[in-house]
Amino acid sequence: MTMETYYAPGELPETPEPKQRQDAWRTTRVVGGALPRIDAYERVSGTAVYPSDVQLPGMLHAAVLRCPHAHARVTRLDVARAEAMPGVLAVVHDGSPGADIPWHYDDEGKAKSRLFDPHCRHEGEEVAAVAAETPQQAWDAVRAIEVDYEVLPAVADAEDALAAGAAEVREGGNRIEGETYERGDVAAGFAAADAVVEMRFSTATELHTPLEPHGCLVRWDGGKLTVWESSQGVYGAQGEIAAVLRLPLSSVRVVGHYVGGGFGSKLSTGKWSVIAALLARRSGRPVRLFLTREETLLVAGNRPGNVMRLKAGATRDGRLTALDFEGIGSGGAYSPDGTGILDWLIRDLYTCPNVRSRTTSAYIHAGDERPMRAPGHPQGAWALEQTIDALAKRLDLDPIELRRRNVPTVSQARGGRPYTSTGLRRCLDEGAEAFGWTEARRSAEATQAAGGPVVRGVGMGAALWIAGAGGPPSTAIVKYFADGSVNLNMGASDIGTGTKTVMAMIVSEELGVPLERIQIEHADTATTQFATPSGGSKTVPSDGPAVRAAALDCVEQLLAMGAEELKLPAGELELRDGALVARGDPAKKIAVASIPAFRRRRVVVGVGYRGPNPQETATCPFAAQFCEVEIDRRTGEVRLLRFLGAHDSGRVMSRLTYDNQVYGGIVMGIGLGMTERRVLDRKQTGKMCNLSWHDYKIPTAMDVPAEMVSLPIEMPVPEANTIGAKGLGEPVTIPTAAAIANAVFHAVGIHPVDSPVNPTSLVEKLAAAGARAERSA
Ligand code: MOS
Known about the structure:
Elements: H1 4-7, H2 40-45, E1 60-66, E2 72-78, H3 80-83, E3 88-93, E4 102-105, E5 111-114, E6 119-120, E7 126-132, H4 135-144, E8 146-151, H5 158-162, E9 175-183, H6 186-191, E10 195-203, E11 206-207, E12 215-221, E13 224-229, H7 234-245, E14 252-255, H8 271-283, E15 287-290, H9 293-299, E16 302-303, E17 306-314, E18 320-332, H10 344-348, E19 355-363, H11 377-395, H12 399-404, E20 410-411, E21 417-418, H13 424-435, H14 437-450, E22 454-464, E23 475-481, E24 486-490, H15 499-511, E25 518-522, H16 539-566, E26 573-576, E27 579-582, E28 589-591, H17 596-601, E29 603-609, E30 622-632, E31 637-648, H18 655-675, E32 707-712, H19 736-748, H20 759-776
Parallel strand pairs: 1-15, 13-14, 18-19, 24-25, 31-32
Antiparallel strand pairs: 1-7, 2-6, 2-8, 3-7, 4-5, 9-19, 10-17, 11-16, 12-13, 12-15, 17-18, 20-21, 22-30, 23-24, 23-29, 26-27, 27-28, 30-31
The protein binds dioxothiomolybdenum(VI) ion.
Dioxothiomolybdenum(VI) ion binds at residues 6, 232, 263-264, 267, 371-373, 375, 535-536.
């Protein structure tokens, strides 16, 4: 699955236009409410069965031998001793029958490597795998595999990889030309500017660290394979596994009822599923293969670090005249996507007639990127939003005012298509108001003027997200039983965002059935309807309208039955509190449960499809986030005091899961801004230096501000889809790190251009700035 497939669903085949009525909601009774998640008990009690919890009789445990070097060639591999170890039932490697499977493809469809490629291009690359009765026996056997490596020179950094004489990752060179984008006349734009700033930025590589590691449990029944996979999309995983194993889709069933976090890294499956399938076939037993934490850090994907240069010009009255951007990054040893959609905000967040952007990716000897919550965007925001604040300072404008003067109404990067809704101005204004921006800035400046070591700063960042419109295809089935309960059947995964709860609320809205009487069957390719993977912040706007249409199909059938009973045209009836009532004469009614035809049939089955998106408009979520920091100038320590996220994601579907997304996105953004950094041994071995959760820091409760506020800017957008919602999960993490950086700039006058902002880096920058000030004094 490529990055485009989840943010450009327009490329997918259209489903049939739904025959159900398509008027969008005006008011809602259930949707938008603050209802607990329908699976809250299962989640907090530990009784929810995640794929990593599934156990089968006779199940074996797998372990993988991985290359310990950043770049090496396997010169000798002998598995005889491992095969003879107690409890070992299968060992597979490149020489095993059926294991010579091509892997990683280029644009022309040529394989770049193999499942077990003796030429290992990154630390952690798969060399062989074992299945044994116990995990301990499997790991003992992995250690008993005899393997010799010829260690080769490695390159661990995108800029190094582009330099002359760099170690080659791929034949044909490490450079991957990215996209060049240009509109207007950038030189003329800078000539017309009253102020121009140019800065260099970098963001560190962030690693995927979902609570449930990546992996699966597999079982063969004859020629048919069942995979319990921790996945964001069972149909996507099914397609990938079937293609690799050359099986028809009907021979591969993927089930993924719960998923302990994915954030983009579980949009696709990985080698683990195929290795487990091979081991299971060889041993004739079910095989469980979940990665260890260290393995996920090496092979389960990352948000590429980027080096960026941005030059921006504006007139005295705060109109942007030109933006000129350059970005470099690496997607690892096989993925060309080191700079995927990195520049989208530069192109589209603010009105600017003259924009130029160039991105270049490079192969390096490290694990591949995988999409991570708004790919490219938080990095682009890191550069753009700090540049905007630098410009505001230069123009002596309030940072919010400068942004307000450049709010777009059309998507300039999509040829000027109007947005179905643009909540950016309201996010800026209402967010600033709720945050107390003006007073907070003033009181922070008072701490700075006081001259003490501890000062405060207030900053903000804005964002949009390229996707979040959703679209077809999606199908859902609602079974409405005569006892007034419901079964909802849909393919989508609930990746922790509360999808199931939102969908149940949609059914409840239309059928009047309470949530506790709705059962959901989902995320199983054998038994549920088709859905694209949950990603791109598009699950609710893609599948929500399909679920609503399925519920409305049930309503239509009930109305037809009631009309017959009441001898009234169906159009004069409506469903209200479990009864069909004549609009003009409420005395004429019949309880749904007592409609004879319904009682005889026991169930009505409604089918709903997601209709097409409008073609002349663009639909994107918008955001602004605000934060206040306290900095100790002696130590460089930055404390986050409070955060506010103001988000336009269309209709608020479920207030509690909405707020969960906002808080979670901010926490993840704090990771990018302040704690997370993959450290590769750039000068020597190329290996990862902080290969553990102890040394690779994700934010903990101690790093999160005590005050976090979610401020929905609710603007239902009926033009976009029949539920009026846009995506939320990704925009919530885009402006966070940039907002922190701008608050740091406000506090101490230094742009922390390199992420993460930590005491070491900040104290060095403060010392350098102090020395400069002394020299010039
Ligand atoms: Mo997201 S990075 O589309 O799961």
